[in-house]
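Mods, move this if it's the wrong board.
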Amino acid sequence: MARLRDAVMAHGIAKASEIRYALAMTKLLEQALAASDKLPAETQDELARMILAIVEREGEVYELSEEELASLETSLAQADRGEFATGEEVAALWTKHGL
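Not the wrong board. Structure tokens:
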């Protein structure tokens, strides 16, 4: 009940639907959505579409293509042999991609 009371106090909530919304959202998601109101409408819509796409696929199992499966098997075999990128190789890749 304390969590419910805190949500009502923190958000000035009056409706049951608003209480469910406030209780179910993590602090990080709440911060992200609050910050998104500063974005242009087009960007807000893009963000909303991304969130909805994630929600719609929740619980789905992704099946690897034959190409992805082969790549994964190659990577696992390299790891089994201890073949990993050096720190210099990783740094070069990050630099190449501006990271």
